[in-house]
Specification:
Bound molecules: pyridoxal-5'-phosphate
Number of strands: 12
Strand order of the largest sheet: 1-9-8-5-4-2-3
Distance between the termini: 24 Å
CATH topology of the largest domain: Aspartate Aminotransferase, domain 2
Radius of gyration: 21 Å
Order of helices and strands: HHEHEHEHEHEEEEEHHHEEHHEH
CATH superfamily of the largest domain: Type I PLP-dependent aspartate aminotransferase-like (Major domain)
């Protein structure tokens, strides 16, 4: 699905030098590399504060911790997403309220979201799934009306931007009160282990989240709030600082691959190619097809025989997950998410796909769909 080895080879000299600098300096935690990367990412995103943390799940958890929510407060999340979004809500004793998504974009449905708001709703967590921003103009306007916090799950969308109707363009994760991203190796900006970051333009929230990520500590050994231990390692920051310089190039490489897929698969009605929103560009964390009258398991098997990986993101919507069973939800409540979980299939998508590989993959898929 990804080819991190070939990507590394192209930047090896620079990455290795950065890693060795950290080892030589022996400042593995909170070193200068972390601050350098933080500032470079702030500049890239045009956001006031980047808070590097241990991973994307922690980023979401810290973002929810800073809001001073009370047990039972409701947080709205889409039911078609990676589990982390729901996990942190549940872990903090908050109440995850699930809503459906749009068939076209896979992102949170505005109609479904509006219907889910109650007097106990405190926050919305839109997920910019597969690398395309949710309808943030609508989401921010609803949040303002109902006085809700917006935490963007931008774990799959770093580098994409959203254009508002007044022409203003803002980077993914920098539109709501807080944005969260992940630097897991296979993410669009990935490190060599776990990593994540929080974005905000709010000084007060930034200071508090910085403290929470470091045991709730501002002055050493004085703990004003309950925190966690979630920091980005200096070695990871060294890798990320090199890769950040290539992020736009990486996004373009993914788009070029997506264009190739789109063109090839446009020939058949059996494959529905990803919709590109008018108000967001797409960084294709995943290239996800919707199969239309194609046996998914058989296709996946057929591709596997040709050594072509294909993955199902996500096979089970949150309301059907064992750990999240809830009497509030039953089959049929979120028909779009349920349908998507049965018909989606993601193909290899990364920065190193060659035309030969793309031709091989598309030919095989089309051959099966004949
Ligand atoms: C990857 C991901 C996360 C979690 O990030 P980790 O760094 O793996 O903890 C959260 N939400 C979404 C949508 C993701 O894709």
């Amino acid at each position: 699905m990804v080819d991190l080895k070939s990507q590394y080879k192209k930047i090896k000299t620079e990455v290795d030098a950065g890693i060795h600098e950290v080892i030589d300096s022996a400042t593995f935690i909170k070193g200068g590399k972390v601050t350098d990367f933080q500032h470079n990412l702030e500049t890239y995103l045009n956001v006031k504060h980047v808070i590097p943390v241990g991973n994307g799940t922690d980023a979401l958890q810290i973002a929810l911790m800073v809001l001073d929510l009370k047990p039972g407060d409701e947080v709205i999340i889409p039911t078609f997403t990676f589990i982390a979004t729901a996990e942190v809500v549940a872990l903090l004793g908050l109440k995850p309220v699930l809503v459906d998504v749009d068939f076209d974009t896979f992102n949170i449905s505005i109609d479904s979201l509006k219907k889910a708001i109650t007097s106990r709703t405190k926050a919305l967590v839109p997920v910019h799934l597969f690398g395309q921003n949710a309808d943030m103009e609508a989401i921010l306007s609803i949040a303002k009306e109902s006085n809700l916090f917006v935490i963007e799950d931008a774990c799959q969308s770093i580098g994409s931007a959203y254009t508002f109707s007044d022409g203003q363009q803002i980077q993914s994760g920098c539109m709501g009160d807080i944005g969260c991203t992940s630097f897991f190796p296979s993410k669009n900006l990935g490190c060599f282990g776990d990593g994540g970051a929080i974005f905000t333009n709010n000084d007060e929230l930034a200071a508090k989240m910085r403290a929470i990520s470091n045991h709730g500590m501002v002055v050493r050994y004085y703990h004003d709030i309950i925190g966690v231990n979630s920091r980005l390692d200096s070695i990871q920051a060294a890798v990320l600082d090199v890769k950040l310089k290539h992020l736009d190039e990486y996004c373009n490489a993914r788009r070029t691959a997506a264009d190739y897929y789109d063109k090839a698969f446009g020939q058949t009605e059996k494959l529905i190619t990803p919709t590109r929103s008018a108000n967001s560009n797409h960084v294709f964390h995943q290239y996800t097809l919707k199969l239309n009258g194609v046996n998914r398991a058989e296709l996946q098997k057929y591709l596997a025989e040709k050594a072509i990986p294909a993955m199902i993101y996500y096979p089970v919507p949150l309301h059907f997950q064992k750990a999240y069973q809830d009497e509030r939800y039953k089959a049929g409540d979120f028909p779009v998410a349920e349908k998507l979980s049965e018909c989606v299939m993601s193909l290899p998508m990364h920065t190193e796909l060659s035309e030969d590989q793309l031709e091989f993959i598309t030919k095989a898929v089309l051959e099966f769909c004949k």
